[in-house]
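#struct-help
A.M.: can someone run this one for me? Single chain, 490 residues.
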Amino acid sequence: MLPNRKPIAFILFLGALLALSVFAFTHPSSAEWLRNNGIYFYALEIDADTKNQSDQTVYTESDTTATSKQANTNKQAAIPSVKYAKTTGSSPLKLPDRVKLSDSAMALYDSLNASLKYLYFSPKSDLLESFFVRLNDAAKQSVRIWYYGDSQVEGDRITREVRRELQARFGGYGLGFIPLTNPATYMDLELGKQQDWKKYNCFQHRKKTKDFGASGLIFIPADNKESKWNIIKLNVLKSLRYKQLSLQCSSDTLFQVEWKTKKDSSWNAVERVVDHNMMHAYAIGDSALYGNIQIRCRGRNLKVYGLNFDGSTTGVYVDNFGIRGHSGDGLKAISNELLKSVSKSQRTGLVIFHYGNNMVPYLKLDAKSEKWVKDIFKSVFRKYRISCPEMSFLVIGPGDMGYQKGEEMECYPSCAALNKWMREVAMEEGLAYFDFYQMIRDNGGILKWRDSHIASLDGHLGPTGQRIFAKELTKELLNAYSAFKIRTGE
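D.P.: on it. C-alpha cells below:
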C-alpha cells in the first residue's frame, strides 16, 4: 500500500510559502515594492524601529541579572515619586463663569476635571483655550501644532501617534514638516544623504548662523554659488497620504526650483509659490507624488528650511521639530520675527516643548543645577510667549530614565528633580504641563518598561511605548477640551 503523500506535500508547500514571504518582506527591493503599495510586515518594522531608538544599548538578561531583578525593582521603588496633588477644594480648570450649567453638565465637568491625572495648568495660563478655540474651527480651517523635542521625537517618533489620535477626532491628513536629512528613519519616506547640502541646527551651530527656520534647522548648499544646481533626493512611499509636497525656504533668497520623478525625462519648473511673509513654499507638482523624487534649486544665498507634506485645508497638522541631543536652549537662536510671522500664516495653535532627557545624566541635586535648568526654560518660554502671543503652550517633562551600573540597572534620581523644576517653571510662566515622569512611575517605572520592551533603559520609547504615551497625552488633552466646551457653552 502506497503512503499518503498529501500531508507531506501540503507541509512542504506551506514551508515554501513562508520562506517566500520572509524573503519578500526582508529583501530590500521586494520590501520597498510592498511598502510602496501599502503592504507591511509590522512585526519586522517594530524590531527595526526599536533598533533605531537613539543610541540605545541592548541588554541580554543573564542568570546574574535575572537573580538581581527583585533587587533592581526595590531600588526603583526607593526613589520617591513626585506627585503634584491638586489643592484641596480647587480644580486645575476654571469653574464655569460664562454659562449657567445644569446639575448633569456640572457633574460631567467635575468628572472631566478629575480625570486629568498628569495634565496641570498654571493659574496664569489660558488653560490651552487659544488652542481649543482653533480646534472648534478645525472642520473649516486647519490648526497646526509645533512639537519640539530631542531624539525622543526625531524621525516622527511619538508625533506620528499624536497626529493619528488628533486627526481621528478632528480630521486632516498629511505629514507636515520634514527636514532634508535626519539621522532617524521615517515610516513612510526615505531621505537621501543630500551631499549638496550642509545641515545646521540651533543646538550645535548657533554661533555659525542665525538664519534657522521655525524648526530650528536650516540647510545651506556646500558650494553656495548662484550658477550651481543643488539636488535634493527623497523616496515617498505610497503608504503616505498627502496632497501637496512643498519646499520651504527663506523669503530673502532668489530661487529657481525644478523637480522630476523617475518617470520624467526632463525637469519640471515650479509654477506656484506661496508667500508666507518671511518664508516661501515652492509647490512641487500639482498633486501628491510618489516614488523617487528629485528637486533641484539654485539662486543667491540659498537657505532652505525643509520640506512640507500638506494634506487637507482642514483638520490638524502636527509638525515634528526634533533635534538629537537638544535640551531646548538652542531655540533662543531662532528669530522672534520669523516665529511670529510663520506661526500666524500657518495658523499654529499649540507649541509643545518636550525636553529633559539629555540633562538627566549630568544633573546634580543642588541649587546651582536647579538655577541652571530654570534659567534655560524661563528664557525659552518667555521668548515664545512674546513671539507668539496668540498661541497656547504645553511642556512635557523628561520621563523616567535608568543606567547600567555593573551588572545591575538603576534609575536616575535626577529625573524626579528635573521633573519638579521644569513643572515649577511652567507654572510660574503660565504654561500647561504634562507629567511624563509620573505617568511612567505610576505604571512601573523605566525598569519595568524596559523589561516589557516598550522603552529602552535610557528612556527612549519603542513603538508600543510611543502609542501608550500618545494615547494618554491626547486623552487628557481631549478631556480638557471637552471641559472647555462645557465651560464656554460651545
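A.M.: thanks! The chain is about 35% helix and 20% strand.
D.P.: also worth noting: The two ends are 81 Å apart (CA to CA).
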